[in-house]
Amino acid sequence: MSISKFIRYFFLFSVCVFAIPYGVQKIVAADVISEYYVPLFLFLFVLTTIVYVMSFLGIKKGGQTSVLALLGGLTLKMIFSLAMVLVLLLKSTDNQKVLAGNFFYIYFLFTLFEVICLLRNLRDQNKM
What we know:
The chain has one domain. The relative contact order is 0.16. The protein is built from four helices and no strands. The chain is globular. With 128 residues, the protein is an all-alpha fold. Helices cover 87% and strands 0% of the residues. Helix 3 packs antiparallel against helix 4 (96-127).
């Protein structure tokens, strides 16, 4: 999967991921979205895109570089994401459980999508 194709699919996936909590909040009539949902979402969206591009370029180089790019990218994403949510949790005083829930919801779905796309790239490489 090329970078442009990933960005196109990732944007569509992100729109769905972004909209689902708003729909749930309308249906359930409870607080499911924190005040920092949008900045957290945008940060993780940009971070996931950067990590995917780094990993994609590492896979294209091949060899030991591909393993380092994949593991290094996912590790950096996890470290920066946890640092961001820690800052937001320390900054926010109300509804920290909702903020943590929003973070894990976005982080795991974005990571799942990224890993699936990277595995598709590795599968294509093994067929050759």
